[in-house]
Amino acid sequence: MEKIILLVPLIPLLSALLTQLLSPRMGRQVARISVFASLLTFLFAVAALWLVLAVPGSHGLHLFGTSALLLLDPLSSLMATVIAGISLIVHIYSVRYMAEETGYARFFILLDLMTTALLVMVAAGDLLTLLVAWHLIGVLLYFLLGQNTRDKSAWRYAFWTKITYRIGDMPLVIAAVLLYQAYDTWSLPVIFEQLMAAPEAHKVLGLRLPDVVAALIAFSAYARSAQFFVHTWLPYTMSGPTPVSALMHAGIVNAGGFVINRFAPVFMQSSDVLHWVFIVGLFTAVVGSMLMLTQNDIKKSLGYSTMGQMGFMIMECGIGAFSLAIYHLIAHGLFKGTMFLGAGGVINSARKSDYVPKEDLYTFIVERRPARQRLPWLTMAAVTLAVPVFILVSTHWLISQDYFQKQSAVVLLFFGWITGAQLIFSSYQMGTRNIRRMVILAIVSFAVVVLGYTLISHAFDLFLYPDPVFREQLYAAADIDIIWFDALIVLVTLIIIFGWFITFLADRDGGRKKRYASNLWLMFYALTSREFYLPHLYTLMTRRLLKIAERLNVWMRWI
Amino acid sequence: MTEILTLFLLGLFLPLFPLSMIFNWLLGRTGEPLLRALLLLLWPQAGLLLISQLDFPVPDWFLLLALASSGLYAFRALALRDVGEWSGFLATSSWAFLWIPVHAGTAFMNVQLYALGFSVPLVMLAFLGAGLERRFGAACTGLYGGLAESIPRFSTILVLVVLAIIATPLFPAFSIMLVTITQAMSVMPAVAAGIAVVWLLWSWAGALLLQGLVTGTPDDSRPADLHTGAILGYALILVLLLVAGIAGMGVLL
């Protein structure tokens, strides 16, 4: 049974070898091998998931009589299915999309190798295998993004990606070595077992080992998932081929959420690290969403959208909702992959019609369409309050009586609420010709968002972390002091109320802003549209470093 | 007196700054690729032979000096354009790390294999550099570029060799770096962190070297690509390196 988890990454690896060997003879037909192998990989991944569902628990397969271990467990099988599925779609899409590009066979070889590396990463049951796959993903992505060897700009930003990934590799290497030194094994299940049995047994420079290791892994996850300060590579990697962007945004960038899940026992035993994870995720989510809204380049905007989503994912880990982060990364992967793969079609349609809506007066008089209306703000504000209360009561009844006694569950509900409130705001600002339809859509979407956060999180919890005690401890590790918690909840509520208050004022004044408010807004807009000057700062720092290196070489006569 | 002389010679052959400058000067003066290859292959082995004669433990501060030397050359490699100089600097940077397994008391044979794991890809780069000089008159980044299109087989080998040098997984240098970091962690955790930073600098330097040669638009000259025999030779060595790297991982596990 366990052998299937070896077969899943082995198929794309064999496909890469075959593609390399047969490409001189088969020419562009060689892509068929790759696509067929992707289909097989997906089928085996689905079979692996089915096996885990049929025989619950974690199963391991040792490779070549060593302690190299591949895990067949809920997390690896679920992630393998998602990766194999996205890879299959990307393969099929690339057959025609890349047809006129040079290095056609090379592209499919790299795509297959990337699929292998991703599948090995999610199944890795020992630190060394994980490190190898983690590192290789960065290297392969570098070459995939630089597929067009003539495009200097693509290579420049591929380099940004590579160097950020390498920066993120370092803490993971150190964390792995620390764990190995403490437990004298690379095997993750053995390490986790010993760590759970005696979490206080080891110290590093006077600090608790779980704290240090969790912090290092969190930093690795930040770099991989484009959290603020190590995010600049993501919006700039759009020069790579579209299928690579799709694969990257759907299956690579979310590795941060995966690795935090894989090391869940370490995070569970850490003290404050999850709180920091929450803060970093929250900040990234807010900043990423702001940057997305202020970019005039659609691709960059999509990049920042992913950054914001990754912030959400990391934030979910920070409140102990590890399984929800997995759901989030899957949902985001599918929707963002669809957006990228559909981008070509959208561009094609835009060439025929820009879809810019005509001005209201024009559509009313010339096209004889009814004028757009806005929903009454008071109704929408009431909806934002009423729906969560209804869902709170129904979920309370559906799941368990004490579900909302837990901090994390309340925080989750607030996530849903904030996201839903944002959705209602957007609906309110849109204006519509069919006001009833808009209200129904807004309420349904809001309900889906809030229910999604609560019910789906519970379902994923049961699948990924079937042990209720483990789940309890995971959530408990993210709990904060009750006074702080209540203060935060009040703050979030106030922010939402403040948002509606501003909307009311804007409505009353007919959208006019006071001069100082306009100036402040303009300054803020300028700052965000220039991405807080971070890419410029990093470029400047890089140039300075290269200059210093050159100066040193001159002083030392190049020897 | 003998001790100081031994340490001096060790600092020369397992290069520590400023004695490392002698090796790089010598490598720069050696034009013949075969001689360069021999130098890259035998220099650290000579140092290791001397170490086997050492009858006193390596002092702790040598690890700091080794890290500083390695870091200095890795950092300086960022601004290099000449392939020959680049291989010399990367050799210096990687060999300096051999002091760590030596300090940890690793079996002599293993340290010799580590040195070989660092040296073999550098030797391959020396030959590839000579190939570039033959084709373009100089082995320098930023002068011609576009090798991926003009000589694709050559550039594939070049990419793989550079990846082997900068300790990419599955090549032996990757396992050696992991062992080195593990051993350094038990003596001085700060040194272990420093090694990781040097590893990052190697990746940076490697990417700059590749981007200066492989990418871009090729010029009108039509240089000859590697012939089948040469490709098979390089591929065989690369496969052996991969096998050795995987075996190294197996030993670690």
Summed up:
By secondary structure, chain A is mainly alpha-helical.
Structure description:
The complex is a heterodimer of chains A (559) and B (253). With 559 residues, chain A is mainly α. Chain A folds into three domains: 1-125; 148-356, no CATH class; 372-512. Chain A contains 22 helices and four strands. Chain A starts with a helix and ends with a helix. The model of chain A has no long low-confidence stretch (mean pLDDT 85). Chain B has one domain. Chain B has twelve helices and no strands. Chain B has helices at residues 2-13, 20-29, 33-52, 61-77, 83-95, 99-103, 108-136, 147-150, 152-165, 172-187, 189-213, 228-252. Chain B is globular, with a radius of gyration of 18 Å. The termini of chain B are far apart. At the A-B interface, helix 5, helix 6 and helix 22 of A face helix 2, helix 4, helix 10, helix 11 and helix 12 of B.
Strand proportion of chain B, as a percent range, falls in under 5%
| Topology, number of strands of chain B | 0
By oligomeric state, this entry counts as: heterodimer
**Unreliable stretches covering 5 or more consecutive residues of chain B:** none
Q: Estimate what percentage of residues of chain A fall within beta strands.
A: under 5%
Describe the global form of chain B: globular
Element-by-element helix/strand order of chain B: HHHHHHHHHHHH
Radius of gyration of chain B: 18 Å
Shape designation of chain A: globular
